[in-house]
Amino acid sequence: MAFTPPFPERPQRRLPLPDLLRRARRSFLEVWLDAHFEQEVIRTRVLAQGILVCNSPASVQEAFIDQAAALERKSPQMRHALEPLLGDGLFISDGLVWKERRRTVAAVTHASRLDTLAPVMTEAAAECRAAWGALPDGTCIDVLAEMGRLAAEIICRTLFGRALGADAATAVVQAFARYQGRIGHLDMVSVLGLPDWLPRLRLGTGRDVARIHAVVDGLVGQAMAGGEASLIGAMAGATLPGSGRPMDARALRNEAATLFMAGHETTANLLAWAFYLLSQAPEAEARAVAEAQALGGRAAGWNDLPRLPYLRAVVEETLRLYPPVPLLARQAQAPLAIAGHAVARGDIVMVVPWLLHRHRRWWEAPDEFRPERFLADGPARHRHAYVPFSLGPRVCTGMGFGLAEAVIVLATLLPACRLRLAPEARVFPVCRLTLRPGEALPMLVGRR
Predict the structure, then answer these.
(1) How far apart are CA 136 and CA 175, in angstroms?
(2) Closest residue by Cα to residue 437 from 276, 318, 239
C-alpha cells in the first residue's frame, strides 16, 4: 500500500499579499497554490521584485544550462543569508572567484576519489550502529539530531582527518541549527526594491557565526599541521588555475565552512526523512532491510553500493519528495527571455525542486512514496524533472559523496535497528535554508 507523506496545504486561489508574506516567513513551501503543481512557467511579482519560476524540464534547461552565464549569481536572499557564514565560499560566490575555486574544490571531491573517502562513512556508520545497539529497546532518540551528528562526524573526518574529535563537529552543528532558525527565504530589502548594498538585519546570528568560524579556523590549522591526509590538505596543496597560487587561510576557511555546511546539513535531512518514510511504509522497509541484510551483518562499504539498488532508489525517492534545498534562485545579470517570457536585469529566476518533483505532468502519483520509480526497470523520467543537486555549471560538487554516504548509512543501520515514530511526534516539512522534518524527529529505536 502506497504511503503519502505530509505536505503543506495548497491554496486554490491567489493569496493576499499579507498572507503570502506571512506564509513565506514561516516556510517557503506554504506559498505555492494547487495550480502551480501543473503549470510549466509561473510568472509573478512581489512588490518590486519580478520572479519567474521554471517548472518544466524544457524551461529548467533553458534557464540553468542554456543561459547559465546570465543566471550565475545567487539570489540576494541566499547571498545575504549565507555570506556572514561562508564569506566568498563556492556556494554563493560567482565570477572569477567561483570559476577558480570550483576547479580546485571539484578536483578534490571528484567521483574518482570517492573510493578513498568512503571508509570514513563506513566507520562512522558502524560506530552509530554500535551506539544505538547499546540503548534499551524503546529508547526515544531525535533522529534528526542523530543524523546531524553522524553526517557532521563524517564530513569533519573527511575534511580535516580522522584524528580530530567529535566535539568540534557537534559545536558547528548546533551553531548552524541556531543560525538557520533565524534565517528565512524572504528578503524584504530586495522585495521592496531597495539597493543590494543595504545591510540585512540578522538578529542574534553574530555569536553563532563567530563560534563556527573559530571552530573551523582551529580545525583547518590542526589539519594543516597534523600531516594526516584530508580534503583540506589536498585543497591547500592545490593551486588556483588563474593565479597559480594556493588558497590563503581565509579562502580555505570559507571553503571548509561551505563543504561542512553542505556536507552535513543536507545529508542529515535526507537520512532523517528516509528513516521516517521507511517507518511508515512497511513493504518498502522490508525490501530495504532484506537487501541490506544480504551483506551478512557487516557495515556497508564502497564496493557494496552496486549490490544495493533498492536502497539507492529509497534515497533518490526521498530526495524527490523532500529535496534538502527545495528552492534554487538566481538573479538575472542581463535581460533575457525564458520560455517566451521577458526577464529584466535584477529579476529572480527560480527552479523549485519542491514543485518540479511533485508536478502532476512529470510524475505519476507525485505525492506518494514509491522508491520503485527509481529502479532500472522503473518508468522513464523527463530529463531535468529531477534536480535535487541543482544542475548546469553549478551542480553540487558533492553529489556523489552525498549519495554514497546516504546508502552506506542506511545499509549499515537498517538491518540492526528498527525505528518507529514516537507516539507524540508530529512530522511536517519546514523550509528555511533547507527542508527539515520540523525541529526534531523523535523515534523509538529497537533491535531487529
Answers:
(1) 30
(2) 276
CB atoms within 10 A of CB 88: 18
308-335 pLDDT, tens digit per residue, is 999 999 999 999 999 999 999 999 999 9
Which one is predicted more confidently, 14 or 386? 386
Q: Which residues neighbour 37 within 8 Å (Cβ) at sequence distance 6 or greater?
A: 10, 355, 358, 359, 360, 366
Q: Quote the cell numbers at residue 82.
A: 549565507
Q: Distance from first CA to last CA of the chain, Å, rounded?
A: 22
Cα separation, 257 vs 215, in Å, equals 10
- Where is average pLDDT lowest: 118-127, 136-145, 248-257, 393-402? 248-257
Torsion sign over Cα 229, 231, 234, 236: negative
- Amino acid 406: pLDDT: 98
Amino acid at 151: A
Q: In what order do the strands lie in the sheet containing 41-46?
A: 41-46, 49-54, 348-351, 328-331
| Cβ–Cβ under 8 Å, residues 422 and 442 | yes
Q: What is the pLDDT of residues 425-447, one digit of tens each?
A: 999 998 877 899 998 999 999 99
Walk me through the domains of the chain, giving residue ranges and CATH numbers: 17-447 (1.10.630.10)
